[in-house]
Amino acid sequence: MSNTPTGTVNADATQILGSGRAIIEMKNVDKLFGNFQALTNINMNVGEKEVVVVIGPSGSGKSTMIRCINRLEKHDRGEIIVDGITLSNDVRNIQEIRRETGMVFQSFNLFPHLTVLDNITLAPRQVRNIAKSEAEKTAMELLERVKIPEQARKFPGQLSGGQQQRVAIARSLAMNPKVILFDEPTSALDPEMIKEVLDTMKSLANEGMTMICVTHEMGFAREVADRVVFMADGQIVEVGTPEHFFDNPQEERTKLFLSQIL
Amino acid sequence: MTDTAEAKESAKLAPLHSDTTPAKWVKDNLFNNVMNSIITVLLGVVVVFLLVQSFGWIANEEWEIIRVNLRNFMIGQFPSDQLWRLWTSAFVLIATFGIGTSARAHNSHDDAAEKGLVIERSSLLDLLSRFWPILVFVALVVSFAKTWPPVLGVIAGVSGIVVTRFAGWALPAPIRSRAIPMMAIGTIVSLAVLAGTSGLVALSAGIVALAIAASELSRFFEGSDPKSTAIRTGGPIVIGAATLFIVNAVGFEGYGWEDWGGLHLTLFATVVGIASGMPIGMLLAIGRRSKLPVIKGFCVVFIEFVRGVPLISLLLFSSFILPLLFPPSVETPETLTRAMIVIALFSAAYIAEIIRGGLQAVPKGQTEAAQASGMSAAKIQRLIVMPQALRAVIPAMVGQFISLFKDTSLIATIGVAEFFQYVAISNSQPAFLGKGLQLVTYAFVAVGYWSFAYTMSKESRRLEKQLGVGVR
Amino acid sequence: MLGTLIGIARLSTNWLLSKIATVYVEFFRNIPVLLVIVLTWTIILNAFPPVRISWLPFGETFIFNNLRFGFPSIVGGDKFGTFQVIVLLALLAAVAAWIWRSRLFDRSGTPHHRVLYGLGTFVAISVVGFIALGGPFDITTPEIIDRVYVGGITMIMPYAAVMIGLVLYTASHIAEIVRGSILSVDKGQVEAGNALALNSFQRYRFVILPQAFRVAFPPLINQFLNFTKNSSLAFAVGFAEITGVIQNLFGQSRPAPQLLLILMVVYLVFSLVLSAIGNLINRRLQIVGR
Question: Is the pTM of the predicted complex or chain greater than 0.80?
Answer without folding.
Answer: no
